[in-house]
Amino acid sequence: MGIKGLQGFVARVCPDACKTVDLREVAEKHRIDHPDFPPVIVVDAMSCVRYWYTPESWVCGGQWREYLAILEDFIKAFMAAGIKLVFYFDGVVEEKKRDEWIKRRLQNNKEIARIFQFIKTHRKQPGREMFIVPSALPTFTRFALKSLGQKTVCTLQEADFEVAAYGLQHNCIGILGQDSDYLIYNTCPYFSIEKLSLDRLVTVMYSREDLCRALGLSLTHLPLFACLLGNDVVPESLLEGFWRKCLVTSPHKNNSYNRRTNILLAVANYISKVPCSYSSLKHLEEMLPLGSDKTLLYRGVESYLLPGQQSPWIPPNLTSCQTFSLQQQTDVCQDKEIFQLAKEQHIQSENYTIFNILSKGEIECSNSLEDECDTEIPGQALIYRPARQHIYSVLLESGKGGAYPLVKEWFVYFGNPLQQPELIQPVQPSMPGGTPNLKTLWFAKGPDVEKQRCSTFLACFHLQDRMEELQALEAPVAAFCCLLAYLMMQVSSLSLEDLNAFVAVILCLKGKSAAQLAGLQLAQVDSRGVHLGAVFVRGLTTLLMANSACGFPFRMDDLMPWEVFDGKLFQEKYQQSHQGCSLEELLEGNESLYTPFQNLKSFICKACTAKKRTIQSRPRGNGFITGTQQREFNPRFQQTHRSSFVPPYHNQRRGFLWRNPQPQGKKY
């Protein structure tokens, strides 16, 4: 989260702490000083994604091939300078950050509502000032960087702590990110992603030493300074009285500054006169209205201490590195072999959410670009919940005679106030003989096990009865069909026109370059198409979760959005389909796609019919949704405990063909 206002304060009040640096020169100096160690920059990826996502279109579901090309160019620029990058992603939301996470999610809901109102009014995308990253962008960025050969780490605790620790321990030339906490940690230099000029590799370095000089502080003061301004551990609400006291005695009060700037100067002035000792910290704790938790300041200061570091504010015998906090929890999964593999895959960014479920039995999902006024489409969190319940069952092996551990879900959707997690019951998927043992799925070898992995995966989406058809498809297309069939079955308002649009996208996307997709121009944007694009992309993350749980019947690369989806292309096909265009126009005049189009469409319709779901034609023409009526709950989607499924279809197949080289023959 960082310290509110600190980054802007440094730029306005301490310009000497903002130094323009040429990263090539920094790297060259490092090579001279440390000839045996190549220059490394550790990247706080979560604070960079919004700066990396520069495609013009962002509301339609994501321009994934364009984005992949941008990431590739980013990496190449640093490689050309001989700089290695290591990317860190948040792997958990720590308990101490949950309240802040909820606050941001509820704020994002309001921003998304404004975006949809704009689209309905103007039939176009808002300007960049309303920008929100496409749904699931951080998740797919992690896999994109891994696919591009980069070292990508998913954290076990707060990402900024692990980034700062890695930078210090590996003598990195700097941290690249946009988080004022990096001004507080005593670690390697902090470089700005916001100010980075990629073509010249020039950016701004924020200097802790110069900040301290300007404030009359030492580096050891900075953790306490951060705590007394309010951070993730010490809430601002407890500090108002203290700030008023500091403002009264501050010699630096300046009417041309805003209140926050004056508070920063006043707090720095106060701290500079306090002796650096544990007794001083205790005295401060007594001054503040900390309630029952008198150790708040102590814990706040300690949270900035990296492994091996000490602080005069904390006696050495009391210091306990943050990493110990990981051992305080009781893991949901008691099998050490399974737990260890899940943990390793989590750190190496090879699986998705599995470790969170097996360790804490808890999972979260941030906002999606969903229209809360569209009463016909349930929240994606509810659409994919039945699949997740099956995945939880596979992971936690419920129904094997033991208790059913509930999974805590923090999923953002309309009507969920996020006051507490929803407790979700795992539900066994319907499989002859039951679901295989997790050890079998993860560790056993051989064609029979490969088949079990695939049938378990398909059972999570109620598709295990359609093995033969899926077996004939290329892996990304097979995965796409699983998701689309599930989606069509779960959401009864989806029409033949919606189905046609989705199928046209995967067929027309094949062979299109990032540049071609970037050049695609939309005359207007449809809000329902925006909503469906976000729902589909969130479905891809559900495929990732199922694939990770079932022992990887698919290669993760085959489940990526750049393989099967493009936001603008979907928006174009959606509008064409609903306006009743010809098949020839929908498929861009490519006659070779006609048969594959009918085959894929037929597969999905048959899968739905088998579950008594008939997909009907409901052309919307140019009738853009403009309604502002409040969404009402569909009772079917409120149920969190269900023993049998009203929706989906079944499908079974030898999915081991998906992971290995594709056989020659039919591709669609």
From TrEMBL:
What the entry lists under SUPFAM superfamilies is as follows: PIN domain-like
Where is it mainly found?
A: nucleus
**Gene Ontology biological process:** fat cell differentiation; peroxisome proliferator activated receptor signaling pathway
Q: What are the entry keywords?
A: Activator, Differentiation, Nucleus, Receptor, Transcription, Transcription regulation
Q: Where in the cell is it found?
A: Nucleus
Q: Kindly indicate whether the keyword Manganese belongs to this entry.
A: no
The record's note on quaternary structure and interaction partners says: Interacts with ESR1 and RXRA. Interacts with PPARG; in a ligand-independent manner.
The similarity comment for this entry is: Belongs to the constitutive coactivator of PPAR-gamma family.
What job does this protein perform?
Answer: Functions as a transactivator of PPARG and ESR1. Functions in adipogenesis through PPARG activation.
Q: What is this protein called?
A: Constitutive coactivator of peroxisome proliferator-activated receptor gamma
Which organism is this entry from?
A: Eudyptes sclateri (Erect-crested penguin)
